[in-house]
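BACKBONE STRUCTURE TOKENS:
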Amino acid sequence: MALMQFRSPPHHTAAMAAFLDGASIEVMPRTAAGITDFRDHLPAGTMVFVAHIDGTPAEAMQATVARLAHEGFRPVPHIPARMVADRAMLAEWVAAYRDGGAEGALLLGGGLSSPRGAFSDSMQLLDSGLFGEFRRLFVAGHPEGSRDIDPGGGEAEVMRALRWKADFAARTDARMQIVTQFAFEAQPVIAWARRLRAAGIDMPIRIGVAGPAKLQTMLKFAIMCGVGPSLRVLQRRARDVTKLLVPYQPTDFVAELAEARADDPDFPISAAHLFPLGGIAAATGWLSAARAR
């Protein structure tokens, strides 16, 4: 399958290319099935996260993980705590993913309003002791807060949970990273990442980046995923009739993050995590163009 063609981003710099060198991407089994061979779209060794959406059969998750590993990638399955019925199911999933070639997993609460079994959050998953053979573990981050975790707004509970996870990493030597929801404004994201460092939360951060998509598609996903104040970037764009038919691209957002990292050797954001909201081909096409020197 041929890649979609993208012109070099207008804010292309060596800093931006370097920032995107270690980028990861997120797919679902359903969308991955539409890609004949991921090697036509991504460099070997790319970390590919496999999202477990409610209703996705466990067998589809496991098959996608095994396929990605076979094609030379590093699959990272999502494990949503609230979808796990019991410890036996969790152990079965972990073993199947490990046998399929996964060396890590993203542990999160999941999108359900209430748990279906014994687990309700990622801290309980970590405490299960079942992930010791994974080389890397990932947990969710929320630069604009999470109404699911802090119903009244703010970030007190989000910060408390991340401190617990940072302490877990320190006492167990687990190699842990934070993977965030996507956002559209760089400066608030940078400020959030620095607040984490100031609070002693020093896990590397993979910042969520929304891949190219039509504006209407982007607005739909942003609202559905609970994107916070940075949604105003899209709302301003929607009021500009000259941009209504032009797909959103994350070039400005990523360039600002890349420049900040180039200026600060202790910058807490280590990499980008791409959400292919406009399709995998569009996202990987943009990524390839942005990485090109």
